[in-house]
Amino acid sequence: MTVQVQVIGEERHLASAIGLAAFRVVVEAIENAYRHGRADEVEVVVAFLPGRLQVVVGTVGRASTSAPRRRGSGARGPSA
Questions:
Q1: What pLDDT is attached to residue 35?
Q2: Which terminus, N or C, of the chain has the lesser number of Cβ atoms within 10 Å?
Q3: 9: region left, alpha or beta (phi > 0 left; psi from -120 to 50 alpha)
Q4: What ranges in the chain are assigned the alpha helix state H?
Q5: Do 35 and 70 meet the contact criterion of CB atoms below 8 Å apart?
Q6: Is residue 65 classed exposed, middle or buried when 0-12, 13-18 and 19+ CB atoms within 10 A define those classes?
Q7: What would the pLDDT profile of 14-36 be if each residue is shown by its tens digit?
Q8: Of 67, 13, 75, nearest to 42 (Cα)?
Q9: How many CA atoms lie within 13 A of 11 on its CB side?
Q10: Burial class (CB in 10 A: 0-12, 13-18, 19+), 33
């Protein structure tokens, strides 16, 4: 799988909790694109906007039909 990353805006220091949360979201999204969408290529866009960080992860083009489906150990959803 190919992952393309685009950064928009001027990079700046993030609070460690925000940076870690963004990293985990991106990793989980890439794993889901591979595991469930069978994507050959994923694009990650990180936008440093005034007062906020925006992260978009999406597949590019068609998904591969040859990639095997795998069961993963992704993050579990929130529990009450």
A1: 87
A2: C
A3: left
A4: 16-35
A5: yes
A6: exposed
A7: 999 999 999 999 999 999 988 88
A8: 67
A9: 5
A10: buried
pTM: predicted TM-score of the whole model, two decimal places: 0.72
| % of the chain residues with pLDDT over 70 | 75
Banded model confidence at residue 1, pLDDT cuts 50, 70, 90:
confident
CA dihedral of 2, 66, 34, 48, whole degrees rounded to 10: 30
Amino acid at 75: A
Q: Which of 43, 46, 47, 39 is nearest to 57 (CA)?
A: 43
